[in-house]
UniProtKB/TrEMBL annotation:
Source species, domain of life: Bacteria
Keywords (A to Z) from UniProt: Ribonucleoprotein, Ribosomal protein, RNA-binding, rRNA-binding
Similarity field: Belongs to the bacterial ribosomal protein bL9 family.
Molecular function as annotated in GO: rRNA binding; structural constituent of ribosome
GO annotations of cellular component type: ribonucleoprotein complex; ribosome
Every Ribosomal protein L9 domain range: 13-40
Role: Binds to the 23S rRNA.
Name of the protein in question: Large ribosomal subunit protein bL9
Length: 148
């Protein structure tokens, strides 16, 4: 079955790509969730529109992502969490917390799924992580967790 991807699907493709998948995967997973539409000759126009929009966004996003990367790599993200007397946090610092701190530094929204932490942050201290800002643009960030 041929489908047109409308969203990015890991290990399958980008929006606008025409891919061949097994019938069940297309009918039962991709199409009902809105990740793809069935391919027809008339849908070729939709493919062209998606590809054109992606090309326009790519040049704008590349410059914006480079600026955001520079801002994130020079700054240290400060996150305040409730901690016990020994420095252990009540809970943990999540990727959503790091994304919110990164968004405050860059002034642009950062999705929590773009953040990668090397290990779970469960105590006060300094840590490192990375934020994927674009196709090949990754910012290495320093995270300083302090007690509230």
């Amino acid at each position: 079955m041929k489908v047109i991807l409308t969203h990015e699907v890991e290990k399958l493709g980008q929006p606008g790509d025409v891919v061949t998948v097994k019938d069940g995967y297309g009918r039962n997973y991709l199409i009902p969730r809105g990740y793809a539409t069935a391919w027809t000759k008339g849908a070729q126009r939709q493919i062209d529109q998606i590809n054109e929009a992606r090309r326009r966004r790519a040049t704008e996003d590349l410059e914006s992502a480079r600026e955001s990367r520079d801002a994130l790599e020079t700054a240290t993200l400060q996150i305040a969490k409730t901690a016990g007397a020994n420095g252990r946090l009540f809970g943990a610092v999540t990727t959503a917390d790091v994304a919110a701190a990164a968004a405050a530094v860059t002034g642009k929204p950062v999705d929590r799924r773009q953040v990668h932490l090397v290990s779970a942050i469960k105590s006060v201290g300094e840590y490192t992580g990375s934020v994927k800002l674009g196709e090949e643009i990754v910012a290495n960030v320093k995270i300083n967790v302090v007690a509230e």
